[in-house]
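Predicting holo structure, DLL bound.
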Amino acid sequence: MILDIGFETMPREDLEAIQLRRLQATIERIYYNVPFYRKSLDENNIKPADIQSLDDLKRLPFTTKQNLRDNYPFGMFAVPMDNIVRIHASSGTTGKPTVVGYTARDIKTWSELMARSLAAGGASRGDIIHNAYGYGLFTGGLGVHYGAEKLGASVIPVSGGNTKRQIVLMKDFGPTILTSTPSYALHLAEVAEEVGVSFEDFKFKFGIFGAEPWSESMREELERKLYLVAVDIYGLSEVMGPGVSMECHEAKKGLHIFEDHFIPEIINPETEEVLSYGETGELVFTSITKEAFPVIRYRTRDITSLNPEPCICGRTHVRMNKVSGRSDDMLIIRGVNVFPSQIENVLMEIEGTEPHYQLVVDREDNLDVLTILVEVRENLFSDEVKILQDEERKIRKNIKDYLGISAKVKLVEPKTIARSEGKAIRVIDKRKI
Ligand code: DLL
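Done. Tokens:
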């Protein structure tokens, strides 16, 4: 495929004209097709015809993850189920996931944006992409997959896990692009070393890493250990999946947001005031081409800033700096989004546990490890060891069943977890990224 990069290098004025047209069409669509949006626009006395300029976006109410959850599973869809061809999901605080849907045209758009992203990250036709993002409800695997095919590259749909076999495939197939979370990429390097193989002997040119925060020092480590150029890819299921923004391999300095499809804003997470370019705050997105699941001023909770300076790659789309954190307490453990409250819900349903717990997240062999410390009632401790072991097993199993993550569980005696005078310290994140 020859990529039409016209949209990516368009003068600002032309881009804004397209944005306005698409925004107006989106507002019209959601007003008439999604009861939630109609109600919230009515409550704010806004009619679709009131959106006359891009500045009018500011008048629209924000959408939060809670709003999506309240409309679980399909209440936010703007098209009949007959037109939905794909469903993905990401986790949410109640244990119920946030569900997103795509029409055939949405899948086409997403594939094109992923092809754009891979191209910006250095991939082209003729490359072999070793895709170690998970396939399934998570958007990473299939998102990259469709984009790679659209680009005309060869894709190896290896998914996550079975690490030693991945090393064998890398040796035998000679992939040139690696796509995975940055932590899994480092783990791959380590396992390779264990089995006596060096990435130096592989053919990788670029690594396209995302789905969790990673720092400049992690970039250096990835580049040194994997003998490739490491670039950042960002996205979230609610807005589309991977490919909302992408770092270009020429500059490696911030991620271009595909503004012909998504309008970004940065707000102060406390006051909700819209901030200027360069100021750090919470990233908010409005989708302007999605059919099945449009989002209006969706609060991502990701903290970053926007940089409008021209880029050496020639793209005119604004860049977001690397995500530096979140404005809520969501943790990303091996690519799975987890809120402490979800773990709390699971713990509280188990007989014998006290509402005192602490989550310790660390990295072992470059993989995230979650340890849950839970206080249990005194009488459990006076009983036999087997009862304690059963309790630990039950907690581990329920965490795995409800949240899909493996955790170590340590039962501790009452009053051993430090009490705080203010907010309880629920999370100790020891990962250095
Ligand atoms: O993680 C989509 C994705 C897949 C992006 C593969 C990149 C590569 P969710 O599971 O919905 O979607 O999680 C979205 O992950 O709000 C951020 O907090 C975090 N995140 C995603 N990419 C990055 C990144 C996918 N490059 C949440 N840097 C987002 C920092 C990231 N955080």
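The pocket of DLL is lined by residues 90, 133, 138-140, 210-213, 232-237, 241-242, 300, 302, 323, 326, 332, 337 (CB under 6 Å).
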